[in-house]
Amino acid sequence: MDAEMISFMKFLSDKSYVTLAAVEKSIHITRRQTVYRLEKINDLLKKNGQSPLVITAAKEIPISEKTKAVIKKEIGTFYDTREYYLSRKERIIYIYMMLFAHSGYLTMDHFMDELKVSRTTIFLDLKELSRRLENKKIDLKNNRKKGYYLEGSEMDIRSIMMRYVIFTLAENQSSKVFDMMIHSYHLTTFAYSKSVIEKLAEKYNIHFVEDRLMEFIYIFIFMNSRMHYQSISESDMPKLVEMMAAFKEYRFALELIKNFNKSIKIAQNDIYYIASWILGISFGDIKENTRDCLLISDIVGEIMTRYEALSGSRYENTETIFIQLYAHFRPAYYRLIFKLPIFNPLCRRIQSEYKELYCLVEETMKPFQLIFGGEIPSDELAYLTIHFATIYSQKKTVPLKNDELKTKVQNALIVCSNGIGSSIILYNELSEMFPELHFFEPIEISQFSDFKKEIRIIFTTSYVSLSELNQVPVVRVKPVMSTDERYQVLKEVNIKLGNIYSRQMDINSLLKIIEKHAAISDRDQLSNDLLWYLSKNYHRSIQNEQNLHLLDMIHKDLIRLQVKADNWEEALRFSYEPLVKNGIVSQNYVEKTVNSVQLMGPYIVIAKHVALPHAKKEEGALQNGLGITVLKEPVVFGDKYNDPVKYIFCLSAVNNHAHIAAMSELVELLNDASFYQFLDQVQDVEEMVAYLEHKEYTQKQNIFL
Length: 705
Description:
The protein has 705 residues and is an alpha/beta fold. It has 33 helices and 14 strands.
């Protein structure tokens, strides 16, 4: 049995039914591979006296509880045995871990004996590993004196090891390849390492999320082996390491290393490196008032100011948002400073499901690239996007009143394993999908055993078998769900709670009926709209749900070209005139904007020569709208990096969410040099509108291509 087969079985083990399309899309396998693996599972079921899995006429596979129990038992047996064949991807990881943790002489024969494969197979695996490492500036060398070894920056070599561990645990939900390595090389066991690390974490009050703790343990086991013979050079360490000596994370790292290396002295830089890594995976707490508190606070404050300037959104609960963002950004800061890798399994999904918000966060973080010496990785940006989506979410996790509880007779709980803000997004999404359920506030896996309230169903992002701890139906969910996955969850709940949601229809059948009578231009979007129409409370205003695009907010009467102004205040007032005249904003809104700039400085200057003035919606935003003003001569606002300002985009937003797509489209325009060339020469507002219409059409075409 191999990893691919285990992955397939895991996918089936927590579902009451699956569609062939969902299997192929989620696991990235073909129809033929799916059928082949089903045959293998049916052989297993037959041996256990169970009925085989059958593909229905609707291309669905119903899965009974007894069938799931057999599959889960087989998965458990797999983890308890060494009768397992590594895939090529796993062999390459295993070879790298041997090169990383082993200080002795390694030959082709060593790899062959360890992996039980032929010389040709090892040769091809080494060739592929070498190719992958070239892109990371690491060379896989081989000579008679040293055998096979890695050559390159020690921080880069360690980074690759960490990436392999993080990626494998996140993608495969399996530690088999690492357990085999630990067993074969007699490294410190996972169980012992976990015991020591958890005791020290409690001693120093360091909180690890469940998934991050598992990563930390495996990485430390391999890192500790390498530190015996290889350390990080002084030139590779950031200058701020001395400040870290006062941190509890440093004391944690020092005691941890001493615990495992009583007779071996570990280099000081390695202690700092382990401390930075602990900082990079634990929570930041502003109440601790650490030596870096002011530094991190200043950056977080600047991020919040710039995001709100770019998005045109203003928020009341600034202190709460600051504390939450600080908690996330402090570890991100150390990951970025020390070039520590992070794998975000949600990255592509976030870029797709939260495209506009991701775009705004990416633009928000651009000025901070100078601090970290390069572009901020998309994995980090995606996590930041989730945090912004969470802390700026409209819905709050507040307890229900007694009269509200009477109408919600079934309690539900969300258990999250990754600790990111997506648990709140899940709370909002699931409570809207299932208004009949009362959802308790989300908790982590470590809190589950202490949760004593009565619950009817559990939603979880974890692969830990919660049902064994509590005899309650469990529905596995992704932290960020696609349309298909939402529909899968709807049907799962429908099955597990006794078909109480009869209002939910088969979307695919409904689409087939529609296709008989009408042409569908965007099947996925129609499917999504139908799903939400059938699965959530539809008493909310369509206007509130609408995502406004740039052309929805711009009208020719709001555009002014070649405007002459003597100073920034005059420029702002001239720019707002058409919005006041057309009832988009009140005069008070204009005064509040001017006063804000006088009080807070030129925060509205968001890019070279560009200002995006706006105020709180309560201060006079009457309608959604965006004015465009091109000054004849630029004026100084007081921003030393982006002055003088020539292009002013006056925003009015009646809520904090509907205009996010429009702001994302504006940011895309502001990153296009040809847009400024057009603004400098355009003489007619009709020409301006035509240009924007062409740009919107081009953007849509690029999406479809």
